[in-house]
Structure prediction request, 314 residues.
Amino acid sequence: MVVALVLVLLQFVGNDEPTNQAMPSPQPTSTTSSTKPKPKPDKPGMWPQGLVVKIDNTSAARPHFGLKMADLVFVEPVEGGLTRMAAVYWGKRPGAIGPVRSARETDIQMLAQMRRPVVTFSGAAPELIPALVKAPFIRATPTTQPAAFYRAGARPSPHNLLVNPARLTKTKPVSSPLSFGAAPKGGKKTKSLGVSYQAASYNFRWSPRMKEWAITLDGRPLTSMGTGRVHAGTVVVQRVKVGSGQGVADTSGAGSPVAKTVGHGKATVLRDGKAYTAKWSRPNPKRETVYRIARNNKRLPFARGKVWVLFVPK
Prediction:
């Protein structure tokens, strides 16, 4: 019994120091292929399996690796008023993704809308281990799959841990399951929108030339190594309840916030140079979140391209 417990602890908390390797080529390479996304019927369900990587986004972790190729990026609040990203890949994968950081309790409910995703993270707080063991996803860490992780030597630890997705548990490349479609009527013409957390700020500025939203983090353009500025076709600012979790706290004693992503609430959706007043609904963990136009309750599809969803406390 004691031996088994020790093994579990090592698997989820322990080894966050894999062997150093050379810095990867700045230009990412695709390890899989995907087909063109198809329109999705207005029937919410579960998303297919994909690769999810928890990504550090503090100043020491930038520029990122492989972030621009993510099909979907979640931004979630963490300790100290900061944020952490969860990048989701269904189709093409870059040659390197990161910097990789630890899992949070928010991830468990947030990712339950996907069938057995491969969730990649550096470790987790001991208090969170029982919940992670029960979570319906495949855990990929430097302990469970050490050959996939390495350090980028020019950066200080812990902001230099990268993962090579080609060496992780394989996930079948599929088209993005997100609901895409033509822009609905209405919406307010918007040049930019700022989103603030206690210790992090995002700005999304519409680019008529690229027909996407250029992303700025903490006053600086958000970039990905070898591929430049990160853009999104659609940005969702989702207002959620934030509570306390499994007793996890940082070194100052501040509790780790947990975003409640099941339920309903208000949202703002940016697409095609407009901002739409919307509402979101997710009745249970095994259903995807649906966004609808507030004034007529019609489903609000995403614009073609990458999608960013920011969970912002109500």
